[in-house]
Amino acid sequence: MTLRLTDEQTEALRRRAEKEGRSMQQIVVAAVEEYLARHTADEEVHRLGVEAVRRWKPVLDRLAQ
């Protein structure tokens, strides 16, 4: 995989890596892992919400009357 960043992004990443005492790769990998975890959690919340609506639809319909 090739990651193409602007010169400004590369320099900002380099500065951040130096401040944190980590490599640029470590920071990018951590950012990707955080992104994937966040979206996985969002998908799970959505799935649970759909399941809850399906499960409780009859009760919710009765309460709406």
From TrEMBL:
Source species, domain of life: Bacteria
Annotated GO biological process: regulation of DNA-templated transcription
Record domain Ribbon-helix-helix protein CopG: where: 2-38
Database matches in InterPro entries: Arc_rbn_hlx_hlx, CopG, Ribbon_hlx_hlx
Matching Pfam families: RHH_1
Annotated protein name in UniProt: Ribbon-helix-helix protein, copG family
Species the sequence originates in: Microbispora rosea
